[in-house]
Amino acid sequence: MKQKIGVSVLYEKGTGEEVLDAIFAGLEEEGVPFFHMEGTGCDACELGRYAAALSLLDVGIGVEKQGGSAICHIKLARGSPYLFEPVNGRTAGQNAACLVKGMPFKSRKEDEENEWTDIGHSKRNDRACRARGASDRCPDGHFGSG
Fold first, then answer.
1. Which domain of life is it from (predicted)?
2. What is the pLDDT of residues 65-91, one digit of tens each?
3. Residue 129 included in any domain
């Protein structure tokens, strides 16, 4: 049953406040409303799927007590999160908001700064395209950044 307008965040009992605060900060930065509640005895993917079912926006985040989070959309198959973030809560919050708004996801660079990437365009392919000097599309069909 749908609950509220906003991204639903379900977390395992014992999840650290700093992890949750980072997720909430990421959602707030992108201007997307959210609500949160404690879930029971599931992994991040199951919590995320249940969270998406509670949200009128059809997007939810499940958070494990170790800090991993799964961003889920209600229309995806069970056990297939849209995105899994091992430890970076802020990026998980931002990416859930981007999924709602239909914007490109943010990803983490090796030096811990955020960068924009196209969905489906891996960092490795992006670096390869830049090395070739691609400005629009590279021969592989990937968008370049140069």
1. Bacteria
2. 888 898 999 888 776 667 777 667 888
3. no
State the total domains in the chain: 1
Query: Is the residue at 113 inside a domain?
Result: no
3-state SS, one letter per residue, for the chain: CCCECCEEEEECCCCCHHHHHHHHHHHHHCCCCEEEEECCCCCHHHHHHHHHHHECCCEEEEECCCCCEEEEECCCCCCCCCEEECCCHHHHHHHHHHHHHCCCCEEECCCCCEEECCCCCCHHHHHHHHHHCCCCECCCCCECCC
**pLDDT tier, 8 (very low <50, low <70, confident <90, very high otherwise):** very high
Entry pTM? 0.70
The CATH code of the domain that includes 76 is 3.40.50.10150
